[in-house]
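[09:14] KT: can someone run the structure on this one? pasting the chain below
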Amino acid sequence: MEYVRAFLAGGIICGLVQILLDKTKMMPGRVMVTLVVTGSILGCLGLYEPFARWAGAGATVPLLGFGNTLWKGVKEGLAGDGLLGVFKGGFTASAVGISGALIFGYLGSLIFRPKMK
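[09:31] RB: done, structure tokens below
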């Protein structure tokens, strides 16, 4: 059942984002920033954690989950390091995910040899 919840939650998030892309004139970069900021705001309000516990990877993998991770890092950094923690907390919390994306993106480019258009 956990897989079904993750699939449904992730699918609904992606479907809503696709509708946003199709029905507005927002560029993909702005939509991605909107998702990260929305995830941060929902995390700040305490609404994202219960949803993420229910949906599992369907809520933590999309960009909404990345925004929530940044918020949690900033919150922990602020509690531990004060004002300096505001600046370094988000980087500390999301470093593994960002590093993984860079490493696997680079490995994928070596395997598939993308060409510029």
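[09:33] KT: thanks! The radius of gyration is 16 Å.
[09:34] RB: yep, looked fine to me
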